[in-house]
Write a structure and sequence with these properties.
Length: 217
């Protein structure tokens, strides 16, 4: 196998999850090497990744002699070498999918840093704060409008990179039992995404690991 994906600890690595999901959904073959990104071994392990990748972070995809780093680049590359089904061919629809990808990649909202991916796996979860629920509400209403206008099962009609990029975000919000009844399409979309074989494969391993406790939870 000439293609190697360096991912991170499965209950702590939301960016690696996105790249991994795209490769899996597109049936691209790869060998997976998990980098332990828990402290204190994180620093030494990522330093070693820095010897092969400029970003010194995961995910990194090695394909033959090429190094493709950053989840977004890997997602787009996966689509190019896979079935190509995760980006629409029409330029406007493709730009819409890419808008969602870029938005998530640029930080999305204040919610992600406050509600870490790691916290989705804590046995005792706190309630969401009012501000967090407000941020979640905004995302839910945007997703609801998108689902309504695409009349599809997924954000932009068929499953696309736009859906996959939001999976780790959904997981961190959904694990904290948000009030979501007002957005029925979003609720169904979340359930549909979480039930995907690829998502369940990653999550079942993630759930089996000892939780990575962060102090600022
Ligand atoms: N923009 C990068 C972010 C990657 C990232 O932050 N990865 C985490 C693990 S999920 C990591 O390796 N962090 C270590 C670091 O950047 O020092 C991407 O999308 O791939």
């Amino acid at each position: 196998m000439s293609r190697i994906l360096y991912t991170g600890t499965k209950n702590a690595s939301s960016w690696a999850f996105r790249a991994w999901l795209s490769l899996r959904e597109l049936d691209v073959e790869f060998e997976e090497r998990v980098v332990d990104i828990r402290t204190p071994q994180r620093f030494e392990n990522l330093q070693r990744i820095g010897e092969i990748s400029p970003s010194a972070s995961v995910p990194v995809l090695i394909d033959g002699n090429s190094v493709i780093f950053d989840s977004l680049a890997i997602m787009e590359y996966a689509n190019e070498i896979g079935t190509g089904s995760l980006l629409p061919s029409d330029p406007l629809s493709k730009a819409r999918v890419r808008s969602f990808l870029s938005w998530q990649h640029a930080g999305l909202s204040g919610l992600c840093p406050r509600l870490s991916f790691e916290s989705a796996f804590y046995p005792d979860k706190r309630d969401m704060t009012t501000d967090e629920q407000k941020d979640a509400d905004r995302l839910f209403s945007i997703w609801e409008n998108e689902l309504e206008s695409s009349s599809g099962s997924y954000l932009c009609g068929a499953l696309s990179l736009a859906d996959l990029v939001f999976v780790p975000t959904i997981i961190r919000i959904y694990a904290h039992s948000p009030q979501i009844a007002t957005w029925p399409l979003t609720q169904q979309w979340i359930k549909r995404l979480l039930a995907r074989e690829s998502v369940e494969e990653w999550m079942s391993t993630a759930r089996s690991l000892p939780p990575v406790i962060l102090e600022d939870y």
